Amino acid sequence: MEEEILALRVWTEGWEEDVEVLLPLTESGGSPYLEYLATRRRLSDGEGVTFNFITTAGLDPQQLVRLWDGIVLGAEEPMVLDSLRVVEPRIERIAAVSREVSSGAFVLRMEGSDQRVPLGSMGDGIRRLLALSACLARSANGTVLIDEIDTGLHHTVMAKMWKLVVETALRRKIQVFATTHSMDCVNALAALCEDEPALGPAVLLHRVEKHRGTTVLYSADEFAAAAATGIETRGVRG
Q: Fewer CB atoms < 10 Å away: N or C end of the chain?
């Protein structure tokens, strides 16, 4: 039996011939081929090509610490903190205090308290938003893939999560690909595009159907209308 791999399928048109390739995604959150291209570009002209992949389990703790090292005390640290406040508004600061491979590598300081609270005690939603916002903060002019973006998040915070993703992607010129099987997640994105029409042109929804060669494409206006009338827009798991 052939072993299944998780990979990014890339179809390139406009060269001497059309090319389709599979780029395997590693557990550490990237593609060996894309990492190779990034290294070559850094060596040749000093500019990196950033690519991050967030699995349903989140990021490897060591990778998250590495990302945080490039964020702390920088211009994007407030954005990361604001993303965590979507779930817990009392958060004031976050710090990496250990290089151990555990969620305990991060601690939080809460409003009105001098106690350090381990990140691991705050639930899946906080960990998910930290991974998501850290990748966005460190992916300027690059690409972020997110598998099941709603993992660990309550439906009441999904619109704020989408606002963070779309606005940061626009500001930092990031192409984001996110999957979901949650209708609440789709509805939250539709509500955001309806409430803030300026964000709509940056958003497309692709419905993936089993045994179909192409996706069903919805513009922001189309999937907002579908959500308002209760039409199913989620993909079917293959």
A: N
